[in-house]
Model the fold of this input.
Amino acid sequence: MLEVQFGQATDFGKVRKNNEDAMGSFVPASRRQKRSHGYLFAVADGVGGMDLGEVASEKAISVLTGEFAHAQAGATLNGLLPRLIQQANTAVHNCSLDPQYEGKKMATTIVACAMRYDQAVVSHVGDSRCYLVRDGKARQVTQDHTWVNEQKKLGLISSAEIPDAVSRHALIRSLGPEMFVSAETTTLTLQPGDVFVLCTDGLHDEMEDSEIAAIVSRKQSPGDLAAELVARAVEIDGGDNTTAQVIRVSSVERVGMYRGRPYRLPTL
Done:
């Protein structure tokens, strides 16, 4: 049976007067629900420079977690998650048409991780990230949807130049501005001991991957580790809201698929 522990933390930082980050989760209430739905974790970062970043991020998280809870039992996660992100995008986009928000522009990033059996599906839009920490090493699962990252892919800028680039936070994809958005989705096979970190740029801009891995590899509760990550990022700079979720995989359930249905694999 898939078993996970998780914790989360957020901080306004040293400069901002409000928190435009949001986070949410769906934790199954029974063994049956673990197999029918699984777990969901998500972090969003309202886009600064627009009017209502905090409204956009809260709306996206609310729609995503709410719709996941009511999704059809056994729905394929790598099809479900990007579809729910599109629903969240539509909800944020429609907020700008609401009379109380009319004329206001809003947008948010989002990164979500759904887990069931021995699989994790990560889907994202924008530059909030997911890391997988395995055997003490961090792997960045997501790729930032930013102008500088596109320039890096084209060889126009190096990784070393990105932190000083003026446009390093300029997004090429986010929830809200357009009617439709394309989420980038990755599927991973879980192993006991894996740790996932979902975070906003207030954290990953300030900390090296190796430092993130070193902190979350400690034998502490995920809640304490999330708080330590956030506190460390704020200590380094604190110029932005900072949010982290830490998910530790305790055990997994190995399954195979036959005609779209899971079946348990024999234990060796």
Summary: Helices lie at 31-36, 53-69, 77-95, 147-153, 201-204, 209-216, 222-236. Residues 3-255 form a domain with the Phosphatase 2c; domain 1 fold (CATH 3.60.40.10).
